[in-house]
């Protein structure tokens, strides 16, 4: 549905992580949330991006205060949110200068905006996969593409508690580890 490969790949990472998860109460790298809550947050963010782009309905609950109770199966919750997001982004021209997004400053060029949406899906895909004890769904190429996006949008969001402080790099870090550490995540986290 989308003409944005970065979003397609990030959605596939989220789909893979959700499919690998059986224990939705499992702890995640987001220490305050279990796997269900991370999924609710990720789905809510995808719906929020769609709502900003289309003027449609936003998420039914606050993505930053997830209840831990899903209205449908995890797969259906994820698919619904990703469909709304990808459909909304499919209508955005690649050269659009000012696209409405739920990320401060709430308007950015299309490529950065879709990158922000993709970053959200991808990093939470990693969180869910780690909770499941599954392999990382992030490819090195996706991590390389997402890092410049993160470097442009994350710092102001740290002030809102959306991301933990960046972690120092380690010898031997690959592209995925570099992205995760920048986002305040330990690439070697395990439950």
Automatic annotation (TrEMBL):
What residue stretches are annotated with the Mycothiol-dependent maleylpyruvate isomerase metal-binding domain?
8-129
InterPro entries reported in the protein's UniProt record:
CHP03086, DinB/YfiT-like, Maleyloyr_isom, MDMPI_metal-binding
> Which Pfam family is one of those matched by this entry?
MDMPI_N
Q: What is this protein called?
A: Mycothiol-dependent maleylpyruvate isomerase metal-binding domain-containing protein
What organism is recorded for this protein? Allokutzneria multivorans
